[in-house]
Amino acid sequence: MQFEESIKGWAQLADTTKDKKIMSIIAPPLNKASIAMRAILLILLALTIYFFASIDYQGVNVLKGLADTFNNFMTIFLHPYAHRFTLGEAFVNVMITLGLAFLSTLIGGVIALFLGLLAAQNLAPKQVTNLIKGFVAFIRAVPTILWVLIFAVAAGLGSAAAIIGLSFHSISYLTKAFSESFEDLDRSVIEALMASGANWWQIVFQAVIPSSLTYLLSWTFLRFEINFANAVAMGAAAGAGGIGFDLFMAGNFYFDLREVGVITYLIIGIAIVLEVVSTNIKGRLQKST
Amino acid sequence: MALLELKNVTKYYNQTIPALEDVSFSVDEGEFVSIIGPSGAGKSTLLRCINRMVEASSGEISVDGVISSSLTKKKLRALRTKIGMIFQHYNLVDRLTVIENVLHGRLGYKSTLAGILGRYSQEEKNQAFQIIKILGLEEQVYKRCDQLSGGQKQRVGIARALIQNPKIILCDEPIASLDPNAAKLIMDHLRNISTEMGITVIVNLHQVEIALKYSDRIIGVNKGKVVFDGLPCDLTAAQIQAIYGSESEDVSFDLGERHAG
Amino acid sequence: MRDDIFTKRRNDNLRFFLVLIILTVGSIIITNYDVIKGFSSIAKALIWGGSNFYPDVKSLRILPEILPKLQETILMSIAATTVASVFALFLSLAGSKTTRLNRIFSIISRGIASLFRNIPLVAWAMVLMLAFSQSPLTGYLALFFASLGFLTRAFMETIDEVGNNSIEALQATGANYFHIIFQAVLPASMPQMISWLLFMIETNIRDATLVGVLTGTGIGFSFDLYYKRFDYHAASLVVVFIVITVIFIEFVSNNIRRVIL
Questions:
Q1: Where are the domains of chain A?
Q2: B188 contacts in A (CB within 8 Å)?
Q3: Chains in contact with chain B (at least 3 beta-carbon pairs closer than 8 A)
Q4: What is the pTM assigned to this prediction?
Q5: Architecture of the domain whose range is A84-288
């Protein structure tokens, strides 16, 4: 039927492409999604304008400030020089920061593995998953720096408070990521093992973890990258030591921009190495799946 | 005069093995030509050389009397408006509606500003609507393309090509991702477009039997070379063997049904 | 043969855990981390928190002080993210493999993104404080530059994911660069980009607290102030407000995502 109709139609179209028959085309109805997107962008724009109109500029000359900042960065990047520490000492401090990041990622990863299993909807009852998800959402809502400072009251300022504080955020982040990876697992695999009489732990260790292992590793490495940046910040803001503390001293105490330069180069170097490794891991994962 | 003419077209992606080697043929107005061959034979490259989505390494291609390789960017865009293209994966903007995707075919005729703002004339909208109606997508006009089936998406692809008012339509494996019913509908539409509107249609195909059924003419390609160029009724089992080489055992074909052209 | 696979897997696992243990021991030594103290301090912190770290009636007196700071911090995060997203859009269009104008611009914009993302927030905050002292602009600019780096990378990945197919189709119709950006790339990637923008606002509110502690501005400064005066009831009230804000914003953005994605 459709075939016959279309023959007629095409012949007509060839003759009547210039046909003036007015067909009223109503404007396409705006859908919910595009209305929502426009509304959000307008609201954000309005709030941004309100921010600039309402803040107390404290007599700062913005253009001059930006120019000064630019010059400061030129000093940082073009004339790095350090005399308060040797490169060897700086290297040790970088290792301390990496160590903080590693330990908190490890602690976070191990705990998140169990919480992630309990938070996955295909592996645990709904009440349990909701409880865990709510718990980790709360942990995530408190900024890392506040966790570290809160723990510092009990453990004293230093690596212990920093590692526990950083671990808390890692747990929260990785639990969410892990449980989502577990939920992606095909329901039928779990069913098949259950039908063969395997118990929950057997299913978890023989099917769930092996099939999502690559994702777990890639998320964990991504978190390591984030924890490195956080460990730098904790060194500066919460006395956790490492290269972050050197950065804080150079910038806030000695006001030595050239030393800030050396430290910044070191941190950027490590961060870029970590980024390249993690991009490679991600690339390999995408290829293998 | 031939509408499309290829002379000694060669394409190297790397230094050693040519993707196309010394390809020459010409196509007349209103002809329905199928290009067949095994995967990796260079069919896709050949098609894309015609509208310069891929630059040929050497040789000459002329479309409607214009030699395309020497054109400036602007003139090339003008030439491309005369050549519609249809893709295996439809290549629609999924989040936009059917009519918006169809009207994308008019962008080549527009100024930068009008194209950015998406301003189309009433006439263009009418024409789009008419084409959509003929293709049987009237009820989907304002639907988003991610809600359509594969066959419907490909019909949107056809509409987008047609609204360009093209002289040639290039189809790169248009039915490779479709079920047999949807595939038949698409091929019927393409055949009719060629016959009724006098538009030249060049189709890359995997399936020999479909090429035999619909084409005025078949070009067989293997390892970047044209190994057959002739009428469907002249294609013998031995020649199919030559086109598909060692793969030929996997190719199912039925030499019974051929286009009467 | 079968034996080999199992032995190999066991050896791989052994090696993996060995490396893990070495790294762990090394990290514990170099960071001077007291494992027992670390874990016991969690219990200690919980007990201490339960008896000291909660808002009491008296602490409500600080509301008039912290609410304006909280508002400033939220607006600062939104403004920094919004302005950064505009710049990030241009950088990502110039940097993405599918939409770049040429190689050099692409390398430059990727370089800027990578540099801005990897300069630690602490360094931004300290350097900006030299020029802008303790004004809100210090926090705003620190968040702006860090967001610019992150959003450029995120937008670039979004464009690379959505683009390719429909870009090819529009090129074939003769559309020019700006037509393609506005008619195909932006409509297709806008929802994902807005989703990233919302994520960035959430992150920035948390980071604003850190910047505040470092530079003595916004809600982070309020917390630091009460914390250093050992006024833990007041400090905990600040934490409660931050938690409510972040969870509220997360809730709102999840609902927005449900509508637009």
A1: 84-288
A2: 3, 6
A3: A, C
A4: 0.85
A5: Orthogonal Bundle (1.10)
